[in-house]
Amino acid sequence: MEIKQEISIVKRIIKLSLPVMMGEIMFSILSFVDRFYIAKLGINEAAGSSLSSTIVWVLIALSTLITGGTIALVSRMVGEKNEKGVTKSAEQSMLLALFLGLFLGGITYLFSADIIGFFNAEPVVERLGIEYFSILLLGYPLIMIGSTSGVIFQSSGNTKTPMLIFTGMSIMNIILDPMLIFGFDLFSIPAMGVRGAALATVISELVACTWIAVLLYRDKKLKLNFLSTFIPDFVMIKRILKIGMWSGMNSLSRPLSAIFLQKIITFHGTYFVAAFSFGIQWISIVFIFMQGMRVAISTLVGQFLGQNNHQGAEDTTKAGLQFGYVFIAIIMAIGMPLSKYAISIFTADSTVIEAGSWYLIIVLAGMLFEVPMTVYAAGFNGAGDTAPPTIIAFFSNWVGKIGFAAIATYYFDLGINWVWFAITLSLIIEGIGLSIWFKRGKWKHKTV
Hints:
Blueprint: H1 2-41, H2 43-61, H3 64-80, H4 83-110, H5 112-117, H6 123-136, H7 140-155, H8 160-182, H9 194-218, H10 234-268, H11 270-306, H12 310-335, H13 339-344, H14 350-366, H15 370-383, H16 387-411, H17 416-438
């Protein structure tokens, strides 16, 4: 009987996660296309745009201050069949997304030059990074609104709508990228280089944000009211932020540590910055799959707990582990032997290819620990118990990754491969730590 239930849950995970994965694939294609065309401009352009990508990752992670609470509350209330609660939590999440998007985006834009200057890159690389970053920031409020809208849909069990939105956004970016980067004589569009790549992304985000917001407020199941969205409900806002605070700190810890990691990589040289930017494009394939699982498992755990079905919630994580390990084994078998070929798609430079291929091999080896890390973090988030993943993530990223990479680089003057190993070390620590904490079982009784 238990085996049949686990098989059924696997099917539900697949059903919920596949549209998320497809949406993430299209979003990754957007990033991949940017990286591909920018690489055609030169190594300096590739490195410059890569500097800003770590900051953008931090800004996107800040959206979990909202979405971390949204997914826990909406999925739990769907399980409880609390329609008014679903509507209210969704409306207040949208209000928070609009406010934080405008506030944080505006502040970051004012200090964009100082932020990029932190990396101490070569002057030409720094200048290109500022050009790219300042334009990308114009789309930040759109990212906040779009990601929050997507999570509301996903938490209610509708993962197909966000997939369609991300697909449309990526297709538009693919069309606009070469036109704005290299120019298009037919429409008298001048070549804008890295600025064109950033502008193509912002235009695509604007269309996607408008599209998903319209669909969200027209959804008959959610019953959101546009006007009541702008009326603050401070009790609900407090509930969202109470859960999301830990979730936001968790998501923020990783990209913030990536900024310092980027600084360490920059110390090794521009070629290694480029190698890292190319390698992360391929590793993002794994994150696409994990994001799909994360959304599906968080949603199902929240719904099961809303029904007081603790066994169903636990079986969801067991099924997620089985599903995840099979996928990672396949990716490792394909990715490791083809690592040099994967990097050579972006560049013909032998130094970059060698460094990038070792990045892929070393980090892929650590992805076995990414599975329990993702599954158990999703379980905690679905339960609204967001503190444990945050504490473990802080230790693994700042001690395991940054601490090890900094010592290897600045004190022992070791090569770039030791920086790549620091990334894998953080995955090992986080995977083991979350496994131990989750099995204590206190998450089952968390009230939200």
